[in-house]
Amino acid sequence: MKYLIMILTLISTISIALSPQPITEMTDAVYHNATVHIGNGKVMEGATLVIEKGRISRIGYYKMSWQKSDIDLKGKHIYPGFILPVTNIGLNEIGAVKATIDDNEVGQMNPNVRAIVAYNTDSELPPTLKYNGVLLAQTTPQGGLVSGLSSIVQLDAWNWQDAAVVTDDAVHVNWPSIMQAKFDFATFTMKTEKNKKYSQQLNQIKSLFDDAKMSLQKSSNPMNLKLGAVIPVFSGQRKVYIHTDDAKAIIASINYFQEVGVKNIVLVTAQGSEPVIGFIKQSGVAVIVSSTHDLPQRSDSSVDSGYTMANKLHNAGVLVALAYPGIMSSRNLAFTAGTLVSYGMEKEQALQLITGNTAKILGIDKDYGTLEAGKSATLIITDGDALDMRGNKVLEAYIDGRKINLQGRQQELNQRYLQKYGIK
Predict the structure, then answer these.
(1) Are 343 and 302 in contact (CB under 8 A)?
(2) Backbone angles phi, psi at 244, to 5 degrees
(3) Is 401 in the same domain as 309?
(4) Residue 162 Ramachandran class (φ > 0 left, ψ -120 to 50 alpha, else beta)
(5) Bridge-partner residues for 192, per DSSP?
């Protein structure tokens, strides 16, 4: 009897934790009088947006006779679905439970590791992102010198095959630094010391890419999985993402990859890029700012260094997007963009950093990132400013024309206790 009770308790717990069922049917809809934020810096007040067969068929100002099914969105806003890059969403569920972590492969050189096949569509975390407007993400492996291959997914799917928007879009490289920060348990402070393995780590990365380039001329050789994962970066079919927040490493890594003929490079960095903004601009490399809500890194940095970094890169003419460190609070991506507004960036420009700009960097701007006729109907409808946590309230969301369910576990618990205490 005791074991039966334990089994029933486990089953009930699992059922409570189920994420909302994915929606497969497309919904056609006509919205009038909305404030439409295009995602390219423009806003249309009182505009009409029409969704048909999963696409935006019309957007703008039209003299249309209203049908009974048409919806008046006066006072409401329509935004493109937000896009979260370089995240381990779907690969890491509970940090304290090792069995739920599948984002870091053993070893230092894993270019052939594919994040997409490990992506968990039943994770409880995507519903929290969707509720705040994040509808697309780039699920990315972590760790080592070469972490593996990321993929771009939509967050309402039955399995990874359904979720995949672009598979194996980029190889992720963690470029080493000559100096590294370590925590000193004796003084409980961070100290900087020389990286004794720097030369070895650098040679490992360079050997991988040099060997992959040489193998292009030896097509008769048996295929090596690691080299096979790297080869497409030389034709531009696959990007290289450089992860580093050290100014010298930024220069060294970009110079190396451009010298060996890598076509598409994206830099994932933060405040460490400030001294070399001019070099980044000249190199033509796009940047994903990995952390905005952060303390100053150097003693001579201004107190708002983290908050203004993306703005400085944008003002210099660099194509910039925003990421969010970790996954537990990555639902706050839009509010990170809102922080940039408080520190001098125009609101629609800040919106671009989580919509249009991100789509361009990821290479999915043909279908996503902006609200334009012919593009995928992947969007959110809000009752307030989506970049302001005080007023943001997502009313509806569409992914590829499917009106998705926003009621996750947190919303169910909220309703349960509102009813318990008779709160309306």
Answers:
(1) no
(2) -165, 150
(3) no
(4) alpha
(5) 181
Global pTM value: 0.92
Q: Write down the pLDDT at residue 8.
A: 47
Tell me which of 323, 340, 365 is where a domain ends. 365
pLDDT at 2: 52
Q: Give the domain extent around 407.
A: 23-81+369-424
Pairing of strands 82-87, 134-139: parallel
Mean pLDDT of the chain: 91
Q: Which of 419, 138, 407, 147 is nearest to 290 (CA)?
A: 138
User: What mean pLDDT comes out for the span 160-184?
Assistant: 92
Smallest Cα–Cα separation from 334: which of 156, 115, 83, 86? 83
pLDDT tens, position by position, 225-248: 999 999 999 999 999 999 999 999
- The span from the CA of 49 to the CA of 369, in Å, is 16
Residue 274 sits in the same domain as residue 409: no
pLDDT band at 36 (very low <50, low <70, confident <90, very high): very high
Do 67 and 179 belong to one domain?
A: no
Q: What CATH number is associated with residue 396? A: 2.30.40.10
Report yes or no on 2 lying in a domain. Answer: no
